[in-house]
Amino acid sequence: MEHGSVINYLKTHGHANVDLLVNFFVTIYDLPFVFNTGVKLYEIAQGLEYLHSHAIVHGDLKGANILVKESGSACLADFGLSIYSDASAKTGSTSRGGSLYWMAPELLDPDHFGFQFGRTVATDVYAFGCVCFEDNLRFGAERAEQPPGPPAMSDTLWQHVTEFWAQRPTARPSTQSLVQKMTWPNMGWQLSQKAFKSSPIQSAPFAPFITARNPSSSLLQVPLDSGAQSASSTLSVSSVPSPTTSSSMRSVNSIDLPVGTEATPLVNSEDKFEFNILDPQLGGIADTVKHFSHPHNATAHREDMRLLPHVFLGRDALVQKIAFLLAAQRTSRVCITGVGSMGKTSVAVTVTESSIIRNIFPKEYIFWVPCITAKSSDLLRRILYTQLRITAETYDSLDPLIAELDESQQPRLLLLDNFETPWLSGPDPLEVGHILRRLAALRHIALLVTMTSGVTPEGIEWEHVPLPALEPAAARAVFKNTYRSAAGGLELTGDETQLDNVLESIGHIPLAITLMATCGGHLGASPDDLLVDWRKAGTAMLAVGGKGRLSMNDTIGLSMERGVSSDPNALRLLAILSMLPAGTTGENLLKWWAPTTWRASTHTAVQILRTAALIELEGDGHLPTSRIFVRPTIQSYMSHQDRIPAEVRNQVHDACYAFILRHKSIPDDHLFKSDMEAIASEEINIQGLLTDIPVNAPRPNALDALIGFSLYQSWTKPSTVVASHALTVAYAALSNPHVSVHDVAARRVTARRVAAAHAALAESLLNLDRYDEARAHFEEAAARFKDLPGGADLHSAGEASMQLLETWMYQHTRSSSELEPLAQEVQAHLSHDETDKYHVARGLLGFGDFLWWSSRPDEALETLSIAKAVFEHLGCPTSTAHCLYRMARTYADQGRTTEALSTIKDALKNADRSGEVMWMWMTRDIMIRLLVVLESYEEASTVFPRSLSLAQAAGSPLAIAQGLELLAYNCAAMMDLPGARVAYQGAQIQFAKIKSTRFAQDDVARCSENLEMLKSMTEMNKDNFFKLRRPDPMY
Questions:
Q1: Mean pLDDT of 918-945
Q2: Do you know which Pfam families this protein is assigned to (predicted)?
Q3: Average pLDDT score over residue span 148-158
Q4: Percent helix / strand / coil, the chain, rounded to 5
Q5: If you placed Cys at 726, which of 31, 390, 706, 1024 could pair as Cys (CB 3.0 to 4.6 Å)?
Q6: Which residues have a Cβ under 8 Å from the Cβ of 499 and sit 6 or more positions away?
Q7: 215 Cβ contact partners less than 8 Å away, ≥ 6 residues apart
Q8: DSSP per residue, 687-700
Q9: Could you report the per-residue pLDDT of 415-467, keeping only the tens digit for each?
Q10: Contact of 278 with 286, CB cutoff 8 Å
Q11: 976: burial class by Cβ within 10 Å (0-12, 13-18, 19+)?
């Protein structure tokens, strides 16, 4: 390691001359002014963070072990001697020696916390709190409570100290967070500008530390010794705005991290980073640009990381071992294996909360990927996109996700929980393995996988961590704590030997302990009662050769037998919920999934299942407003050996189809917005159930549900997977020999479904810019609608042809004279029934679009105005917004900008009423462009946040990039030079994601050219502004 002078000195000179160190250092006790500035706390925190990033625990942090050089730089001491003599210390000291006043509670009384004695990152954080307090603290060892804040300590610092002193180790902040809390802006410490302008290569008492990562990445911050710099270090300097004024600048330097000998951090030593500090007035713009690494408004329900288990004991050493593996790049592919119910998820979640992990991976870059719902590779991709917060137009390909992760190089930790579902139970394990290998190929991505099998995807160098049962002492503590909670605070009574016998009978398995203790607590049973009862019920279930132990399946079965089997509604409800891996809301459960059960009975059944610890509730605790989940292990148990009756399976599938058809609406329906929200709340469950539909024997309404859900996806997140399956099922039904050739009505319904499936698939293909494929399916759909048994459906044929016309116009491969016959046919089909005002207006809209595209503005305005009046009268917001949007574009083309702005504002109101994201974004995009043309820059700036948010919700990197470029241009027009720079940088990054397209290449070049000009400018004025290239096209 290259840090500080103590360790370097020891490596160079050994121990023989340790006493000479006193010539160069004094302790903080010799410098009483140290804590008056507060700067040394920041330096100490940075030094501690550096140690932890290299997998080293100090173990004896206190004031006497903090040395201050004559230049004023603080250095950590004493740890070097112990580490040098005992290499095992890097994973935690095992010596029980130490300084009592600075020791964390779990070191003073490890048995009370259920821990093995061992110093950790968390104990160092606790000791740091003591160091903060040390200058004002005089208390005896016998004092049990924490002291109140001293008068000399600021309220902010005292608040941080109390966080460092959290009783539970996992509740203490990471050292990376600790450094941030000690920075001078957060603490209110006043430092001179001179201090910040000093080069760290010089002896600068207030600036001995440099930052090796951008603060947004929250990674390693490394002190640079005030002496000679390592020859291997590369120094780069960038000037950034001061946090106090927009004009003053300060130098902040960056270095490379030399690779340590103890572990290779996930940060590559070859990388170079710069530290940019934005002026406070740039906060809004910087946050807007940064936002695009955050979650988009995905339609799928994004799950939060599971909470830490209420009772978690006996796994601390294992947690620390896994954390250290993940901290080193070469061992950062970790698979926790073990039978179901062993506590793999609890261990994995606790690992993500450890200080070691949080020191390397900021919280926003630790991702929970629940694979229990991923029954196929398609669902796994969708979950990855949603959970990793990646914006993309579709989830059908992994390429945009991999490109985004590869672009940022930001270390991320992915926790893929219950990976056995897609890997071992899915229909396409080869594709699942390919997905994981592509993630593992990114060196800055750490993978933490939990699964029941040790057979992992090939091509990845795994660190396998088998999870054993709990040690007897920890198992006993878990049982007692769980029992106490279930019994309302009453303690378990009885012979400890009997409790040990109970625990032995269930193999010390965590979930089995939870189930048994919960049941016993609610019943107030003693260990003797539990043992007798379980032996009586479980004798016949004991595994042969199992040494008298029950298997996990046996334990679950016994738990259900005791608390659930007596209530048929509870058993039925458990079966229903087990088919909904993403959980469901209480309202949907009562209304859709379990409608045959009386509401009072459902409430009772839920309470029984909660008492048996078989389900979990998220929310306010009230059934209608909470989300209900079945524990993954219980889901797995229920899915085998026909434990879910066929009758329940059929009921759930039928409920799924009915739910989709009830919420099947088109964008002009007044319920469209609420229907989309309803389907989104159950999207993962629905897709899982729909993929189970057999091709040759679908249940009634199954095909209609497939088509309806395909259309929903085309409006939200286009995908061809379900739509293609719908088309396959539709053709199978068409070929059904049981449908009589003489039954015209039945043949018409079947043939119409084939046409509708073609149209639904074409919608997604069009939205994915796959124009040739979309055209083929629109043509097939239109032809089939016109050739239905019993007569043509011209309205549906007209809608398909209207979309076909739109596809041709997007492609620009045919002239207006070639497309005019198709446009006339669209209008004729849609208007064939003059009494149907809606479809007559749709025909006018289709033809008006064509007139606008053909550059016939006067005819377009006249046609669209007539259509708009009809739609407004009928209350059709989407089509009204469509008409107004085209009219605004036409006015703009004619130079009638003021009229265009007024029209687009009306379009925006209707788009918002419709709830269709694409129109909500498109109307705002044109509105901004018109405002910029009219030089109404202030008003334009108020529209950007919502516009960019909608572009992200639409999943369009191109729309995001164009929006950021507009934002940059608008900032420049407002003479905001720093804001323009930040926004152009963001636009450049987004355009680079789609650089393969011709338009994006032009856009990247334009952004780069403008950015280079901005970098050379010292101020923005009108002359400089007019040098910039405008976004193209403006509208």
A1: 94
A2: PK_Tyr_Ser-Thr
A3: 64
A4: 60, 5, 35
A5: 706
A6: 476, 479, 492, 527
A7: 275, 277
A8: HHHHTT--SSSPPT
A9: 999 898 898 877 888 999 999 999 999 999 999 999 887 788 889 999 999 98
A10: yes
A11: buried
